[in-house]
Amino acid sequence: MKMRFGTCFIMMMILTATVSAQSKKFVHNKTDLRIQSQGSFLVGGTTLTTAGTFDVDNALKPEGQTFHGDHAYVFYQVPRKAKKLPLVFLHGAGQSKKTWESTPDGRDGFQNIFLGKGYGVYLLDQPRRGEAGKSTVEASVKPVTDEQFWFTQFRIGNYPDYFPNVQFPKDAYSLEQFYRQMTPNTGNFDAKVVSSAVSQVFDNIGDGILITHSQGCGPGWLTAIQNTQVKAVVAYEPYSGFVFPSGEVPAPIQSNGLFGALSGVEIPLADFKKLTTRPIIIYYGDNIAKDPTNVWNKDHWRSGLEMAKLWVAAINKHGGDAQVVHLPAIGIYGNTHFLMSDLNNVAVANLLAGWLKEKGLDK
Amino acid sequence: MKMRFGTCFIMMMILTATVSAQSKKFVHNKTDLRIQSQGSFLVGGTTLTTAGTFDVDNALKPEGQTFHGDHAYVFYQVPRKAKKLPLVFLHGAGQSKKTWESTPDGRDGFQNIFLGKGYGVYLLDQPRRGEAGKSTVEASVKPVTDEQFWFTQFRIGNYPDYFPNVQFPKDAYSLEQFYRQMTPNTGNFDAKVVSSAVSQVFDNIGDGILITHSQGCGPGWLTAIQNTQVKAVVAYEPYSGFVFPSGEVPAPIQSNGLFGALSGVEIPLADFKKLTTRPIIIYYGDNIAKDPTNVWNKDHWRSGLEMAKLWVAAINKHGGDAQVVHLPAIGIYGNTHFLMSDLNNVAVANLLAGWLKEKGLDK
C-alpha cells in the first residue's frame, strides 16, 4: 500500500492535467464565397476480408466480414465560375486538412484564400489520419508531452523564445490552437499508401494541381510520377522523400538536426523523368541556417533546403522545370514551417498565385 | 522454415487484402451556396504537463513539455442572411462530421441541406476522433473485420439481405463509401469529455440548436444540462445515455440485441429539470420491432425506442416539451440508423425544419 501511494505521488509530480480555459477568441471569418458545389468522399484504400461466410446469428464472429481501410478523405468546394484546374491539398506529419483551413489565430487559410481567387479546392486527410482513420495496420496512440519540441522544430522559435521576426502570432490562444491542430497516425506513415490514394483523387476529379506540405511532399512526388493528371506540383518545405535517378543520388547531407543526415531516395530514371514533364515549385521560409550550425532546428532545415537545391538541379538537368524559392532571398522574412498559416499567408498565397499565372495554370 | 510457411499460408487463408477498385462514381454536388463565413477551430480539452523545465538542447526529453488533447474540432459555415440560431451537429459511434456531409451515394447531406435553408452549421469531430485525435488517454487501434455486423446493426438489412423497403442505395460504391466513413477512437469514448467540449462550442458561438446522432445523444443531454445556450435538442436514434432523475430510473428493458438489456442513467433531479426548459425532439427510423423478437438488430432498436418513450414521458411529467417521432408511424418508411443520409433525407430534413418552425426556432 505504501509503495503504491508513493508511486501515485510520483506520477502526480511528473504529469499534471489542467482543464483548458481557452479565452473566447473565436470570431467568424468574413469570407463571402459563392460555392457552386461542395461535399466529401473517401477514395482509394484496401479491403481486408476474413475467410468464411458471415452468419447473421453470430454477427460478432469475423468470418466472412470485411474491413475497408487506407483510403483518403476529401472535402471539396468549387466556387462559381471556377478556374479549370483545381488545387489538391495534402498536409504534412501529424497534421490533417486543418493545415489549410483557418489559421491558429482564426484568419483565412489557403482554403478560403484560393476559393476567393476562383480555384476549386480539395482538402485531404491522408490514409490513417483524421477522418480517414481506418488503417489496415495496427497502431498504438499515446499522449506524449512534446509540443515544445514541435514549436522549435517548426521554427516558431527556440522555445520559449520566439524568433524576433517570426510570422507567428505570439498570444497564448493561437499557440494552443496550433498545438491542438495536430492529430495522430492511426497506422504508420507509408508514402506508397498515401500516394496511391492521392493518385486516385486525381482519377476521380481529373486534372489538377497538387499542393503538398512537409512530409506530404514525398508522397506528392510519387503521385506525380503515377498520374499525369497532376499538372503541376507545389511543395512547401519538403524535407525527406526527395527522389533521384539510379546512380545520381547525392551523398547524404550531414546535419546537426535531430533527424541526423539527410539522404535522397533512389528510383528508376524512367520514373524520375516523369517529374520533368510538369512545372514544380518549392518554397522555404525563414530562420534556416546558411551554413552548418549547432542550432539544431535551423540546421535540420538547412539540410532540407540544400537537398531541395540539388533536387531542382537534377530535375532541370533532365529537361524539367523546377525551382526552389527561399523566401528571405526575395525579401519575405520570418516564415515558420507553416507558411500557409503564418501572419503573412496572404503574401505567401499571392506569390503562388503569381507563379500559377506565369505558368498558364490559372485559366 | 516449414512451419513458418505453414503459418503464412494459414494467415493468407484467413485474411486477404485487396486493393480497392472503386468505380469512378464521384460527381460534384450542385449546391450553389452563398457563404458569408467559414472556417475551423479546436475547442475545449485538457493539457498534460510533465514537471521540469524544457531544455532546447535536449528537446526530445519530456521535462517541461505539454500535450494538449481531448478538444473537439469544429468546421463552421454561415450563409448570407443566416437565421438567428445555428445548428451544431454531433456524430455517433465510429463516425466523424462526415455523417452530416455528402451521403454515401454523393447527394447533399444535412450540412448542405440546412445551409440551403439559411441555417449556420457547425460540424464537430468529438474529442478523440477524426481531426480531434489528440487524446490524453492511450488507445490501441486495430483493423477488425466487422462491417457486415455494422450493416446489420445499423438496419440497412440483415446482411447480405437489404430490408425490402430500405432507404439505402443498393450499389457497391455507396456501401463502400459507407464502410469507409467510419473512423476509429484514438482514446476511449467518455461522455463527460465529449459534453465538456461541446458545451464550450456553445460558449464560443452563443445560442444554437444541438443535433445529435446515436451515441452522441448521451453527451448531448449532458451538454444541454450544462449550457443554457443550447436552445433545443434534436436527437436521431439515441440508444444509451438516457438520463432520469434519482428514484425515477425505469427498470432495464430486456432485449435480444447484442448489447443486451438497456438501462437508464440516474442523475440529480435538479440536473434533469434543466432538460425541461427547452424543446426536444427524437426521431427513429424503420425496421424496429414492435414487440420482442429474436431478430437482434430489430430488437436492439426496439429497446432504444421504448426507453425513448419512457424518457419523453418523464421529461413531460416534469413540465418539459419533448416528443419522440417513429417515422413509420407518420408514413415515412425504410429509414436506417442513418436517417440524415438515407435516400429520403430531404424529407427527413424537411420534417425537422417544420418542427423548428413550429417551435419558433427558425427566425
UniProtKB/TrEMBL annotation, chains A, B:
Domain of life: Bacteria
Gene3D superfamilies: alpha/beta hydrolase (3.40.50.1820)
UniProt entry keywords in alphabetical sequence: Hydrolase, Signal
The protein, known as: Alpha/beta hydrolase
Signal sequence annotation: 1-21
GO terms for MF: hydrolase activity
InterPro entries noted in UniProt: AB_hydrolase_1, AB_hydrolase_fold, Carboxylesterase_BioH
Keyword Glycosyltransferase: no
Annotated PANTHER family: AB HYDROLASE-1 DOMAIN-CONTAINING PROTEIN (PTHR43194:SF4), HYDROLASE ALPHA/BETA FOLD FAMILY (PTHR43194)
Keyword Protein transport (UniProt): no
AB hydrolase-1 domain mapped to chain residues: 87-256
One Pfam family from the record: Abhydrolase_6
CDD domains found in the cross-reference section: Esterase_713_like-3
